[in-house]
Prior knowledge:
This protein is α/β, with parallel strands linked by helices. It has 12 helices and 26 strands. It has helices spanning 16-30, 57-63, 83-93, 144-156, 193-202, 263-266, 277-297, 343-350, 380-386, 473-491, 523-527, 529-539, and strands at 4-9, 35-38, 73-75, 98-100, 104-109, 112-117, 120-121, 141-142, 163-166, 206-209, 216-217, 221-222, 232-237, 250-255, 318-319, 331-335, 356-361, 372-377, 393-394, 397-398, 400-403, 436-439, 443-447, 457-461, 495-501, 516-522. The strands form 6 sheets. Strands 5, 6, 9, 10, 11, 12 and 13 form a 7-stranded mixed sheet that branches. A hairpin with a 2-residue loop joins β5 and β6 (112-117). The radius of gyration is 32 Å and the shape is elongated. The two termini are 49 Å apart.
Amino acid sequence: MSTVKVxxxxxxxxxLGALFKRVAAxxxxxxxxxxxxxxxxxxxxxxxxxDSAAPDAETIKFLTGKQEVPVxxxxxxxxxxxxxxxxxxxxxxxxxxxxxxxxxxxxRLKGLNVAFLDGLAAPRGQGNAGTDPTTLHGGxxxxxxxxDALTAAVExxxxxxxxxxxxxxxxxxxxxxxxxAGPPDGAAAGGSEPLSAIAVAxxxxxxxxxxxxxxxxxxxxxxxxxxxxxxxxxxxxxxAVGNAAKQKSLHALGMVPAAHMDASALNARPExxxxxxxEAAAASRKRSAAESRDEELGIQDWRWQDRKxxxxxxxxxSLGRPGVTKxxxxxxxxxxxxxxxxxxxxxxHFSSAGEVVDVRRGTQPDGxxxxxGHVQFATEECVQRxxxxxxxxxxxxxxxxxxxxxxxxxAPLPAGQPVDGCWFCLSNPxxxxxxxxxxxxxxxxxxxxxxxxxGHVLVVPIEHFPNTLGISPxxxxxxxxxxxxxxxxxxxxxxxxVTFERFMAFRKSGGNHCHVNVVPAPxxxxxxxxxxxCQSQISHEWLFCSVWP
Length: 549
């Protein structure tokens, strides 16, 4: 796992002699460095009318290779006084050791994926101007054609983006920070909104920019998990070369390319990391818009104030009272309990049926209160009276009451038999038998046709049963042996097996044929599999419950 040593420079702004003198000293003392990346204006800062002025002699010497640079150097910021003639001279007789990266795109250097966007965000009203993604609009502005070119280049790139280099700051990068962790006053004002959207989309490990004349390293922020883990982005703004305040303009990094990193290291959460500033800013704007709408409603808001009341907090779980032995013959099973209904509320409601000795109501794996529970009485006679409360209303919810000892047993599952047209029945002539890796007496193992990753396989009972609740003990035992063997196989590769059963109530093809998915995953990801499933159920408004044979 080789480390790539890079130097990052803020706005050169035409001070190339001072920049390369400093780089040479740092390279001699702490190098050798592999690359120098320059962000912010590369040429002297001036109005657009000065872009066509004559460049200074020193700049021409460096760009044409007549004066060598100490470290292979790549730059953006190809605008400013004398930039047009200087860039033309560089193109005609340039040096491989000092190169303009381009207007927008991605390059791969010693395993590092380096994304770049040159120029400043186009003024309002010009965002759709320009048709050539290889040149800046008006010589200094990036527009939609460049933003699209960058995102398209990232999509074609294999692996994560290690560095994103820009000339300006993204809008809202300082959002979501503690009050004492922000940038110097006014430094983060404005910023490029398209650049914020790009940062969200490409999730770089480092985002380095210049253009504001100050040094600021933001607390790392965590990117949204798109399914392969949530890694951090470190935003670094660098001051201009030779600035009077002597703020930091040169920064060194030793980087292992993301493609060479272990997933657990890549996705580790740095100390002090925050959430995404762009998501925080979006949430803040949403709240502000809602508050603004409320203010605009004026005195008419009394019409719907009752509808906007805050939801009551969820009640605490009831885990059973000490010294009470569970007795189903004296208990009722209650469904559709209100989430804010407390144990005392439930006891008060059922006390009309007799003495309540216990209330049991647990939580889901994610900690969310279950919508059902049990109420136990002192005698069996109380149960009959409690059943009369079926359909009554508790805290605004209709509840349903059954005797705990008389809950109907689930209907027996149909016997296993081949089904015409079933994808997993091996007797089907259209079954993809070329995907089968091993066949036992009761089960077989097959490669998943739409695999999540390499190594994703299915363990399938040979007979057609809808799910594992219906298969025979012998099939259960063989399935367990297969799962154990697969876990050992993945462990030899440094991975763990994540297993899950997918059941879908198909109406055709004989219904669902039981199949258990086995997916190899890095240990850190495997440990979070259950947590992620629980989070998914909440976001999709599902309810999971444990079912036993």
